[in-house]
């Protein structure tokens, strides 16, 4: 298994490697899928500066407040606007 790397510069710029895709994005939240699970990033005035899926590289700018890993299986059950599907 290959390692991913996350670099945050002064809470204003984040670089992430091994990104498979970006599920959703707005100025306050970004949901990305890594090769081994998901990642949720929150902040203010978030912007995708660079997304290169061939290289697996994502660069985000803005005020970064938090990031958390998510379970891909849980994420796949979500509908639009972040509501969880009910069974």
3D structure, described in words:
The protein is mainly beta and 87 residues long. A hairpin with a 3-residue loop joins β1 and β2. The model has no long low-confidence stretch (mean pLDDT 86). The radius of gyration is 13 Å and the shape is globular. The longest helix is centred in the C-terminal third of the chain and has 5 residues. The protein starts with 5 loop residues before the first strand and ends in an 11-residue tail after the last helix. It has one helix and six strands, in the order ββββββα. The protein has a six-stranded antiparallel sheet. Helices cover 6% and strands 59% of the residues.
Task: Detail the topology: elements first, then pairings.
Elements: E1 6-9, E2 13-16, E3 19-25, E4 29-34, E5 37-52, E6 57-70, H1 72-76
Antiparallel strand pairs: 1-2, 2-6, 3-4, 4-5, 5-6
Main features:
mainly beta, six-stranded antiparallel beta sheet, 1 helix, 6 strands, 59% strand, globular
Short description:
The chain is mainly beta and 87 residues long.
Weakly predicted, low-confidence segments: none
Strand content: over 45%
Q: In whole angstroms, how far apart are the ends?
A: 34 Å
Mean pLDDT: 86
Number of helices: 1
By DSSP, the count of extended strands is: 6
